[in-house]
Amino acid sequence: MTDPAPLAPAREAARGSDAGTRDSSWRLCRELSPLLRLLILTQLAFNIGFYAVLPFLAEHLGSAIGMAGWLVGFVLGLRTFSQQGLFVVGGWLVDRFGVRPVVLAGCVMRIAGFVWLGYARAPGAVIGAVLVIGFAAALFSPAVESEVARQAVVWEEGGHGPRTRVLALFSVAGQVGAFAGPLLGALLLAVDFRTACLAGAAVFVLVLAGHLWLMPQHIPGRVRVRERGGVRALLRNRRFLALCCAYGSYLLAYNQLYLALPDEVQRAAGSQAPLSWLFALSSVLVVFTQLPVTRWAGDRLDLRRSMTAGLLLIASGFAVVAAARPAGWTGTAGLLPAAGFVILLTVGQMLVVPAARAWVPDLAEEGRLGLYMGALSSVAGLIVLAGSAATGSLLDLGLPAAVPWLVLAAVPALAVALLPRRAKGADAAA
User: Fold this and answer.
1) Locations of Low complexity compositional bias (predicted)?
2) What are the C-alpha distances in Å from 327 to residues 25, 272, 317, 396?
3) How far apart are alpha carbons 169 and 184 in whole angstroms?
């Protein structure tokens, strides 16, 4: 498969002066197939329900339930592991049974998990609910993501433009949901945490109904893999595993939005009220700049260089907070380093995520895209599970203010060395 990047300049030149308008999210969405539009809208709804609850979970566990810092970090890491770490199971099920049944099963489990979490008080019950919530996403997310990636390749091969544009729009839809979700959650928390959980469950009831009605039983061009195997070949695919590890470093960094960032906001502002606005800032950046950033990167960078630039930007975001912490600023000035961290993390994310997802189809075995997309998140989930517990302990150790943030900055910076040097297809251009 050819590198998508050279296609972008030719198409942009043909479009002329109205290229910016034509690259708007709305116009691009109208050009897509009905199936792609359904999957992208599904991502929007998923994130509205998810982010109405998750940004406030750490505070709920620490304040309302009274968990220690290390246990809060472990629970958050367990949630990510049960989701990201088990994506490989969901991906295998998608290859075996198809997209529709796996998405529907995941929605049912997410509804049950949110209701359970709303009523859970004991640590064991919280852990059980978090596991159910995470595994639900391990079912429906690989189904949606692998099919979007497959359809994006079809889009590219049809001469419509590079696949990263479709994957960027998928990210935009997710971030619109990530923008609306915390605002909805903040309003519902005026009642209580349980109300936010029940509202999240209600969103997934709507998603379930929509897919029962609109998702086709069989998607043209998607072949179900009946025979066993695939995992052994995956484990021998060094370039793919290297990509997984680098992506895991990004995900660990992103997870600090829910662990290190709330701690920093609490220190600077005396409450977590500004947290919703920082999440909104991240989402607004993605919504309005993801497609231009993806177009810019497609014109100038191959997939490896795009991921490299993104990881280094993420590392610099942690370094900004590390540099400011010794000053001990509070109030509005104290929130500026946190805002800088969010901005740099978000711009890095806009480079890393579409590139990583666009890379996977070129590294995956034929007919195993679900397995490989799932494995990408599973390896990353293992990294987050270990890293989140370590981060929770790191934040509780009373180290000099800058040290935890410097350690976190080193993770994505060092991950650049893990990126595969060359791969076939889309990343072959050097």
Assistant:
1) 1-11
2) 41, 20, 17, 20
3) 23
Return d(Cα 313, Cα 110) in angstroms, integer.
Answer: 33
Query: Cα–Cα distance between 370 and 364 in angstroms, integer?
Result: 9
Concatenating the DSSP letter of every residue in 12-28 gives HHHHGGGHHHHTSHHHH
What's the count of helices (H) and strands (E) in the chain, helices before strands?
19, 0
C-alpha 382/C-alpha 81 separation (Å) is 6
Q: Of 388, 425, 302, nearest to 2 (Cα)? A: 425
Q: What is the pLDDT of residues 262-295, one digit of tens each?
A: 888 888 888 777 887 888 888 788 888 888 898 8
43-52, 70-79, 137-146, 269-278: least confidently modelled range: 70-79
State which H helix or E strand residue 312 sits in.
helix 303-324
Instruction: Report angle CA 44, 338, 290 to the nearest 5 degrees.
Output: 35
Residue 93 in tokens: 């099920």
Return d(Cα 333, Cα 369) in angstroms, integer. Answer: 47
Sketch out the chain's domains with CATH numbers.
31-216+233-427 (1.20.1250.20)
pTM: 0.73
3's tokens: 């590198």
